[in-house]
TrEMBL record:
<protein>
    <submittedName>
        <fullName>Uncharacterized protein</fullName>
    </submittedName>
</protein>
Length: 74
């Protein structure tokens, strides 16, 4: 089953009421949840920002959330 990774940049709130939280998908699909989690960790490490301000979610092909960064730290 293919899995995707959604990245959320948890920036401080903007004064612009129309600005949403920056979110994007990694371009690759992953065969396992472990591969997706590893890709998320590597991507977050490559960003020029505090890793605590970046969240991720692993979703299946139906869009259901399988794991989040909160789950990974438990």
């Amino acid at each position: 089953m293919p899995y995707s990774v959604e990245i959320t940049l948890a920036d401080p709130p903007s004064s612009d009421k129309d600005a949403g939280i920056p979110m994007y998908l990694l371009p690759d699909m992953f065969d396992t949840v472990a591969d997706a989690k590893e890709a998320a960790a590597a991507h977050i490490a490559s960003l020029d920002r505090d890793p605590a301000t970046v969240l991720f979610a692993v979703t299946d092909h139906n869009g259901l959330t399988i794991m989040t960064s909160a789950d990974a730290t438990e």
